What does this fold into?
Amino acid sequence: MIDTGEVANASELARHFKLEAGWVCEVLRMSRLAPDIIRAVLDGRQPRHLNLHALRGRQAEIPLE
It folds into this structure.
C-alpha cells in the first residue's frame, strides 16, 4: 500500500489496519532484508546470532557477513 501510494507512510498503514505503528515499522524493516537472508531464515540456515532480536534491532547492528 505504501508502494502504490494508497498510504503515505508506516503510520498511515498502521492506522489503516488498526495496528501499533512501531510494530508495523519493524515488519517493514524486515521486508527490506536481502532475498538471500530471507531465504536463509525461512530455510533455517541463518547464523545462530541472526535471531528475531537482531532483526528487530534490539541488539547491536546486524553483522555484514
Remarks:
- Residues 13 and 61 are 26 Å apart (CA to CA).
